[in-house]
Structures are given as C-alpha cells and as structure tokens.
Design brief:
By secondary structure, this protein is an alpha/beta fold. Helices cover 41% and strands 17% of the residues. The strands form two sheets. A seven-stranded parallel beta sheet has the order 3-2-1-4-5-6-9, with helices on both faces. A two-stranded parallel ribbon has the order 7-8. α1 links the parallel β1 and β2. α1 packs across α6 and α3 packs parallel to α4.
C-alpha cells in the first residue's frame, strides 16, 4: 500500500471528481480529495466506508495557499504524488448580455486560475514520479455558444492543457485534457433542471480519466472529447 500510486483531485466530493476517486480507490490507488464543504467530503467518505486510502482536504481551489497546503498534506500523508486532477469548476448558467456579473469573478477564478494553481503547486512532486496532470475541460471549450462566459473559461482550460504539456513534457510529466459533453452531475443544480436529451454519467467520464492515468510509461494521451450520443454540438 505504501508504494501504491497517489492522486489528488480537486472538487472530489461529488460529480466527476467523486467518480474518479471511487474508481482509483477500487484500482488500488491512494486518493486525496479537496472541496470547500467539509460536510460534503465527510458524506462522500462515509458512503465509501471511510477507506484508509482516502484523504479529505477542505480548501478553495482558487487560493494558492489552500492548493499548496493540499499538495503538502497529500505528500505528508502518502509520501508521493503521481496524478493531479483539476476537476473543480462551476457555471453561472447565464450570458454576457443579460447575466449577473456578481458571480462571474468566482467562476473565472475557479475554472481557470484553479487548474493553473494546482499545476504550479504539484509540478515538483510530479517530476519525481513522472506523473500526470488531468484537466477536466468541456465540449464548451471547443464549440462556441452565444454569450457563454463559462464556455470562455473552458476555452482557457483547453489552451492551458496544451501550453502546460509543451513545458512539462520535458520533465517526464503527461498532460491529459478530458472534455465532457452533457453529464448528469450537480453541475446543473444551479440551472434548476437537467438539459434535454441523453446525458452521460459521471462514472462514464471517470472511465476516460482513469484510462488516461493508467496508460503505460512513456505514453501521453493529450485530449479526450466525450459526448453522449445525440449531442450535436
């Protein structure tokens, strides 16, 4: 167990992050999950039976001191770090022309600055293990949507993934962008309802994340776009 791989997942208490954590734990990894809400993290751990290999860390992914502390806590608890998954993010579900700007700054900081801070905080540890950075983007980061500032944040994540890869590949670190289409997760709670049509599950997106993480040494899968059948855009 002490030599098993270690992953740190932001926003790991629900949705895609929780699904990735569950699959990695089942595969024998040790996992640290972060989130702003201690109650949600405790509920997730309790759902899994409070496994020994799960570390819960409360913090804000858009605050560098919190992100660095999460990396330090993971290293202290588990002794290594093989994978980071920048999963934390949310949408205000409004548009630039008629939305409420009060929520935009937090969304931009969480969705764009958060992944960059995680990369900065973890890169030295990942050099040691020749590990992997996984960024959870979105189809919205490849397809323009009218007035969608959330989509613009995910275009930024698309660019961040490739910009990061071009630097850290020389360190032996892999970078994978996983860009989901419509997924049934708490992401839609603020919208009041799920979008129409078939939706993927968080577990199905986790399948792609874990597949990328478990590639053989020397293989770097860079971009995975996953849509449900029936989503045209």
């Amino acid at each position: 167990m002490t030599d098993s791989p270690v992953a740190l997942i932001t926003g790991g208490g629900s949705g895609i992050g929780a699904a990735v954590a569950r699959q990695l734990l089942d595969a024998g990894h040790r996992v640290a999950v972060t989130g702003r809400g201690e109650q949600r993290l405790r509920a997730f751990a309790a759902e899994l039976g409070d496994p020994e290999g799960l570390l819960k860390i409360v913090g804000n992914t858009a605050e560098y001191t919190d992100v660095q502390a999460a990396v330090d806590s993971t290293l202290k608890a588990f002794g290594r770090l093989d994978t980071v998954v920048a999963n934390a993010g949310f949408a205000t579900h409004d548009t630039i022309a008629d939305g409420d700007p009060a929520g935009w700054a937090e969304m931009v900081l969480t969705n764009v600055l958060g992944p960059a801070l995680l990369i900065r905080a973890s890169v030295d540890a990942l050099k040691e293990t020749r590990g992997r950075i996984v960024l959870i983007g979105s189809v919205a980061g490849f397809v323009n949507t009218p007035g969608n500032l959330y989509g613009a944040t995910k275009w930024a994540v698309t660019g961040l993934a490739e910009n990061t890869r071009r630097q850290v590949t020389d360190f032996g670190i892999g970078v994978t962008l996983v860009a989901p289409g419509r997924v049934e997760t708490p992401f839609w709670d603020a919208n009041g309802s799920l979008p129409p049509g078939h939706l993927l599950t968080a577990g199905q997106i986790a399948d792609s994340v874990v597949w990328a993480i478990r590639q053989p040494a020397g293989v770097d899968v860079n971009t995975i776009v996953v849509r449900p059948l029936g989503q045209p855009n």
